Amino acid sequence: xxxxxxFSIIVIxxxxxxxxxxxxxxxxxxxxxxxxxxxxxxRLLDAQQAMIDEYxxxxxxxxxxxxxxxxxxxxxxxxxxxxxxxxPDVYHxxxxxxxxxxxxxxxxxxxxxxxxxxxxxxAPGIVEGVTFNDQVWGYPTEVNTYLLLYNKxxxxxxxxxxxxxxxxxxxxxxxxxxxxxxxGAVTQAxxxxxxxxxxxxxxxxxxxxxxxxxxxxxxxHTAVAFDSEQGLETLQxxxxxxxxxxxxxSIAGWEFPNGTVGMVVMANWWxxxxxxxxxxxxxxEVGVAEIPVGPSGEETSxxxxxxxxxxxxxxxxxxxxxxxVQWLNTPRGEGEASPMGEFLVNELGxxxxxxxxxxxxxEDLGDHFLTPFVNxxxxxxxxxxxxxxQEIKTMLQTEIEALLSGMSDPQSVIDFVxxxxxxxxxxxxxxxxx
Length: 434
Hints:
By secondary structure, the protein is of the alpha/beta class. The protein has helices at 7-15, 42-58, 71-83, 98-103, 112-121, 124-129, 152-157, 167-177, 198-210, 229-243, 271-276, 318-328, 339-348, 355-360, 370-376, 389-404, 410-433; strands at 31-37, 62-68, 90-94, 107-108, 131-132, 135-136, 139-151, 179-180, 186-192, 261-267, 286-289, 303-312, 351-352, 381-382. Strands 1, 2, 3, 4, 7, 8, 9, 10, 11, 12, 13 and 14 form a 12-stranded mixed β-sheet that branches. The protein has a two-stranded antiparallel ribbon with strand order 5-6.
């Protein structure tokens, strides 16, 4: 999803021209809702349809049409369908897109009673993750955090019984794990980076920087803060890992499930992939640890991000749309999970945002892999929601990957990205004031 500099302004100027239509609240008329998600795999389609069928059986006047597109096409689908005047009633969306969507008038705010439900039943960091301009914009679904995954067998073979607690240990262990063959080709990497994916590069960088007492943005979100000493130290960590062969770009972090990468910073939703792998034993070889603390840090930290259900501001059936979304996220009974909670845990292996879902699935979420991730939701810092976020993220990804491949260095990454990112932030600020 490479979004050009003009993304924020184009979205705002294009979408703000579309008028808000009246909401139909009649409960006895025939209503058709369209729902857009990125869950297109067959098993996920069946599970989504089962929830839809259950709801429509209780509301025979409501028909729900499900539309799915791949994740990499979701943002484009939302924008183009809205511009064409055929937007869905309900979206499942990535919270990073909230600033542009809210500023352009794409989303309808939930009824106040629903906002109170969300605030009362989710952790503060999760509420913050679905809030922009002091308004909650939808029901949070899955919450994802990043932690250090490590291959216990590879650490033991390199002479280590525990994962690294700080960056010096991270560098030492990564270098010891790396192996090369007789030709000098790397056959096993100590630390892997999830190159080729913006979140796979930037989210681990931010998580490490947070554990180094750094910040992504300044307090009022008017400028980036990753150009600080803490940010530079985080980039230097990557440089040091390249220099001591702890990182080798020929073996990316994606190879961790294949048993050829010792450590990687990754999110909890990778669990299903690891469980299905034939090259690493999920129960005995996959370990999870807190993000190692950097030289300027005092305690671990990490980044979290959310997905949420939202309703289009132009929906002619907004009341029915919110009723469906609320039902999805309401417990079936005392001590039971919500339909959405069941879907997230049983089908995705994800961590649900609502506390009642976490409690209902405490056993499922209590295995050796997910327990540290669930615990981290209490201290994780939400991905900052700012206009231009996606463009800044893509730019930072590109420059970090350049550093990893020897085409840049830590200071050059800062010198290039920081002023460009600040210009993007200023551009968005000025556009919203016009």
